[in-house]
Design the sequence.
């Protein structure tokens, strides 16, 4: 038994060493003596930087320490680039896109042709151009992020895999892709604390794809929505954003999560304060029904997270009340202020300014025109 | 005498058949995949080091390590199942009856929820070691019980209870998990041979072959044990040490599988019976190598189905093994009931 205990202790120590060894060490500069000539200005995003180098080259640095050096088309790749930097040459193509939130950025930059493989099937996309491209066969399904079809990825000559942070839970997939010579870019936009920080990632992909002007213009338009909304100030209205799980408990967003911040930017107040641990990456919190009822029943507006419901979304108020009869007592239900998200909410990172505008409309107008809302609809 | 010769001939024929089936399935696993590679190109790549770059990468870095890992881990599972069925004298005892997979899942849940939940990235080695350590801790508790009790049925109850405890703690941890961790933990627990690397294969090979060889060396004491504890004791077998060794060997084998491929169901339960039916004997000297071969064949076949039938979507390996393994278990239970 003592020997067994010693062996287990040794294994635990090995585990600790492996865990601490995770994560790349940040290194300064390109390694060849080049100095940056400038940097892409960022207003909200904190998880990446874009440094400008001579010849139109860009160094994309992510918060996890990974770095990508983008060389314009036709330019020679500079010598002496540090080994930890992945060099990519434009035009960027043959991308395996497993991070669903990123597709809208490629679409907004009119760069879907750069994507050859997708980690989501055609019917899983709410972005029309992406769905159409898959149905035409321009983009093929290559397996989901946790079980990609490595053979297809190799056959198609994939030059870059863009993954979401979900791949952090399946490190063997990232390691396998790297082993096969496919650079892996983990999109960290989900770790942005400000909603427009996520939208500002369009500048990252703009730098990657050589569409920086378009990216800046797009971002400025979204920021304009935010500025216009912010100008009208606090509406004083409280909002409950949640869904009812199949097991019967409520799942709300963590306080300080980007969605709750969007509510605040729209002039509302998220009804749940101090919900969840801000130090963790957890974005949702499961609530026992007592606390949920006690807090949410007084919310002025309910926004039901219909992205969880299924491809059709919630169709009527009765369908919502069938999930929990307690909801009948809610102020928002009694005043007819129950709204639902469209299925595309999490796939439209480029439109977060529009989402904020929609939220503001819902908070300020008694009976808004449904056609004026892109991401929300009233449940009746 | 004639019966003895017939039995020996049958065993030899069965082993040869198993070797042939293994060779065929190994070749099929190397030859078939979501990308069509001609036999000529496969031969060029494997025998002459030629062929296209893509074909070479697919064969050497994807199909071959996966096929070898599947072969070794399938054999390990079947062997683990045989050991436990012998030990408990119960035909439906499986590799995970002692809470091995539950312990491994608990370890993985802890890492996913608490380590990854704070934005830290980890290597696959961390998950593998965690799963293995979790499995071994479960086994440790079972061994602690084995030291104190002589009844096999109490031991199996202890194993099941430990499995329940681990599952309950996992559910508790999942309560505080985000959706990403829950989804990924569920994916992990479905089992998969995807993403196996040559580094993994080296570790798997050392662990499974060494443990399988040790098991083979125990063939005689196992054979004596099958005739009863009293008989085995009379033959000089140290029953207590023997029981601990059996549990240890079985647990190392199943922990190795769980660590590298997640929990894979039914192989450990179904294959030993299929093999004994084929051989027409329960002699460990023959059954042990045959079980290993049988488990390898079963897993290779199921993995081929799992990764090719709906490619590029990959089925869970446990779904396929259960589909083929469950009918075997059901028929066994019915036969046992009819005999009783």
Sequence:
């Amino acid at each position: 038994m003592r020997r067994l205990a010693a062996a287990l202790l040794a294994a635990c120590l090995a585990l600790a060493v492996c865990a601490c060894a995770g994560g790349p060490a940040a290194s300064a500069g390109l390694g060849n003596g080049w100095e940056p000539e400038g940097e892409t200005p960022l207003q909200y995003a904190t998880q990446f930087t874009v440094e400008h180098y001579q010849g139109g080259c860009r160094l994309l640095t992510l918060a996890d320490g990974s770095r990508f050096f983008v060389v314009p088309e036709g330019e020679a790749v500079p010598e002496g680039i540090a080994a930890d930097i992945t060099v990519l040459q434009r035009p960027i193509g043959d991308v395996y896109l497993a991070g669903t939130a990123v597709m809208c950025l490629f679409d907004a930059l009119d760069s879907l042709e750069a994507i050859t493989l997708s980690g989501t099937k055609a019917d899983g996309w709410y972005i029309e151009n992406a769905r159409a491209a898959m149905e035409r066969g321009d983009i093929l399904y290559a397996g989901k992020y946790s079980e990609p079809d490595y053979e297809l990825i190799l056959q198609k000559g994939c030059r870059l895999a863009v993954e979401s942070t979900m791949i952090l839970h399946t490190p063997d997939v990232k390691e396998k892709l790297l082993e096969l010579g496919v650079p892996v870019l983990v999109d960290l936009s989900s770790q942005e604390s400000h909603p427009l920080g996520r939208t500002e990632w369009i500048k990252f992909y703009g730098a990657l794809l050589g569409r920086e002007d378009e990216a800046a213009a797009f971002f400025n338009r979204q920021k304009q929505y935010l500025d216009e909304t912010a100008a009208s100030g606090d509406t004083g209205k409280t909002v409950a954003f949640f869904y009812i799980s199949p097991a019967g408990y409520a799942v709300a967003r963590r306080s300080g999560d980007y969605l709750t911040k969007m509510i605040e930017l729209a002039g509302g107040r998220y009804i749940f304060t101090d919900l969840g641990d801000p130090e963790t990456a957890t974005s949702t919190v499961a609530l026992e029904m007592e606390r949920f009822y006690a807090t949410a029943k007084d919310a002025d507006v309910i926004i039901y997270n219909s992205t969880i419901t299924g491809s059709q979304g919630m169709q009527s108020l009765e369908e919502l009340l069938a999930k929990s009869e307690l909801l009948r007592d809610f102020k928002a239900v009694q005043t007819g202020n129950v709204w639902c998200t469209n299925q595309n909410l999490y796939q439209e990172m480029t439109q977060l300014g529009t989402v904020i505008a929609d939220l503001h409309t819902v908070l300020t107008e008694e009976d808004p025109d449904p056609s004026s809302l892109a991401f929300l609809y009233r449940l009746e | 005498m004639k019966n003895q010769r017939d039995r020996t001939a049958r065993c030899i024929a069965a082993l040869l058949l198993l070797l042939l089936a293994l060779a065929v399935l190994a070749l099929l696993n190397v030859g078939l995949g979501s990308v069509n590679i001609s036999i000529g190109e496969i031969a060029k790549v494997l025998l002459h080091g030629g062929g296209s770059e893509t074909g070479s990468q697919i064969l050497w870095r994807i199909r071959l390590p996966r096929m070898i890992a599947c072969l070794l881990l399938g054999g390990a599972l079947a062997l683990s199942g045989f050991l436990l069925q012998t030990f408990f004298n119960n035909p439906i005892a499986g590799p995970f009856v002692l809470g091995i997979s539950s312990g491994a899942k608990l370890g993985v849940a802890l890492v996913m929820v608490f380590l990854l939940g704070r934005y830290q990235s980890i290597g696959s080695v961390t998950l593998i070691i965690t799963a293995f350590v979790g499995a071994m801790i479960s086994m440790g508790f079972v061994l602690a019980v084995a030291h104190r009790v002589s009844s096999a049925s109490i031991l199996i109850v202890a194993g099941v209870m430990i499995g329940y405890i681990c599952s309950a703690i996992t559910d508790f941890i999942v309560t505080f998990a985000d959706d990403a961790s829950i989804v990924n933990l569920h994916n992990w627990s479905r089992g998969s041979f995807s993403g196996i690397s040559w580094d993994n294969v080296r570790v798997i090979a050392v662990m499974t072959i060494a443990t399988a060889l040790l098991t083979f060396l125990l063939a005689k004491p196992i054979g004596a044990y099958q005739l009863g504890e009293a008989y085995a004791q009379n033959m000089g077998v140290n029953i207590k040490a023997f029981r601990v060794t059996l549990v240890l060997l079985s647990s190392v084998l199943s922990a190795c599988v769980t660590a590298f491929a997640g929990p894979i169901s039914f192989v450990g339960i179904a294959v030993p019976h299929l093999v004994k039916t084929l051989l027409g004997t329960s002699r460990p000297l023959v059954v042990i190598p045959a079980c290993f071969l049988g488990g390898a064949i079963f897993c290779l076949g199921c993995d081929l189905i799992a990764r090719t039938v709906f490619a590029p979507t990959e089925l869970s390996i446990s779904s396929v093994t259960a589909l083929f393994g469950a009918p075997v278990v059901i028929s066994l239970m019915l036969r046992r009931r009819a005999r009783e």
Summary: DSSP finds 13 helices and 17 strands in chain A. Chain A touches chain B through 51 residues (CB under 8 Å).
